[in-house]
Design a protein that fits this description.
alpha/beta; binds fe (ii) ion; 9-stranded mixed β-sheet; about 280 residues; about 25% strand; Purple Acid Phosphatase, chain A, domain 2
Length: about 280
Amino acid sequence: MIGIEDKDKDEYLCPYLIVGEDFMKILAIGDIVGRCGRNALTFHLPELLDQYKPDFIIANGENASHGRGLNEESAQTLFDCGIDVITMGNHTFGNREIHNLLRYEKRIIRPINYPRGTVGNGYGVYEKNGIKIAVINALGRVYMDPMDSPFTSVADVLGEIKESTDVILVDFHAEATSEKIAFSWYFDGMVSAVFGTHTHVQTADERISNKGTAYITDLGMTGAFYSVLGMERKVIIDRFVTGIPSKFELADGMAQINAALFTIDETTGKSTQIERIFMKY
Ligand SMILES: [Fe+2]
Ligand SMILES: [Fe+2]
C-alpha cells in the first residue's frame, strides 16, 4: 500500500497514508476475460467489496464476452455485480452488440482516440453519493492498431471535465510500458489516477507522484489463473511451438481477480493512496 504525505521527503513515493472523511475509494478491475472472469466477480466481488468498501467501481470489459468484446448479457452481469463503469480497449468492437450498448448505455465507454465519428463516448462524468467522478478510456499506439494520439485526445477534453470535477481516472489501454509511463507523467497532477490495462499481467510499480497522481502500469487480468492471459494454455503453446495459427479457447478453473484501489481526496482530486490487489479463488 502506498500513500503520500510529506511532499519534500521523496519526489514521488511516500509510504504514509492520509485517510479522512473527504476521501473516497475507487476500485479499478483489470481486463475481465470470459465466463471465468465474469463468474469470479459474480461469486467473489461481494467479499472484495466487504473488505475494501469502494465508493465507485470501474472495470475493463474488452474481453468479457467469449474473450473478445462485450455483449449485452455480459454487460448486465457486470452491472449486477456492482460495477459502475465499464471501459473497453482494442477489442471494443469484437462483439457486434457493443454498437447498441455504446449508443444507449452511458456507463460503457470506449477509447477516446478512435477516429472522430466513432459510436460511443471516450469519457463519462458520473455521480455517486453526491460526488462527481470522471472516467476516461484511451488506447496506446505502440504495437497497437493506428489511432489518434491518446495524449492530445485526452488533453483536449480535460478542461471541459474539470468544469464538473477534479476526480478523474484514466484507463490507458496500451501494450508498451514506456508509453504508459510517459502518459502518466504527461498528465501528472492533472488527473487523480492513471491505470494501465491490456497486457493482462499485473505490474508491481504502483506509485503516487508528489502532485497527487496515482499510477500503475497494468492492473492485470480477471480470469483463469492457469492460463495464458486467460486463454487455454495448450492452444497457445501449440501455436508458439508450431507457428500454425489456431483458434483461441478460453481457459477455466481457478480464477484470479486483479485490481487496484485508489483513495482520492474528493475536494482536490489528488490521490493519497494506491493498493494493488491480486486475489485467487
Ligand atoms: Fe486489449
Ligand atoms: Fe484485454
